[in-house]
Amino acid sequence: MSIYRKLLIAAATMVLSSYVFAADDAATTTTTSTETQTTEAAAPVEAQPAATTTTESSSSTTTTVDKVDLNKASVKDLMKLKGLNSAKAKAIVTYRKKHGDFKSVNDLKSVKGFKKMHEDKMKEVQDQLMVD
Question: Three-class SS string for the chain?
């Protein structure tokens, strides 16, 4: 059985390495063409850091979900937020039905499951929520 195992490992290694080397060749080709473009147009490259900063701020906006209204959001809406799972989303909706609308985002600390939540995670969740 060890001979078959060695053959299987050798075959798998060859298959995987061929994909890795193919990817390296493609990356090298892309890098070479990018370097050629960079040397041809030096002025736009210098202006690029400002654009990169703008892109980073806009990409962070796209990764985070727009603020969700805590008093109107459904369980599905709340589950889309980073740091909230289905149990916590259901707890928010249940609390809202039982006690009425939230006065502020800080009222989340009264909801079951949020009392023991670490401050950093709580801040991250609160940053994604709002109360109208």
Answer: CHHHHHHHHHHHHHHHHHHHHHHHHHHHHHHHHHHHHHHHCHHHHHCHHHHHHHHHHHHHHHHCCCCEECCCCCHHHHHCCCCCCHHHHHHHHHHHHHHCCCCCHHHHHHCCCCCCCCHHHHHHHHCCEECC
Is pTM beyond 0.70? Reply is no
Q: Which residue has the tokens 């690029």?
A: 48
pLDDT tens digits for range 31-89: 544 444 444 444 444 444 443 333 344 444 334 447 899 999 999 999 999 988 999 99
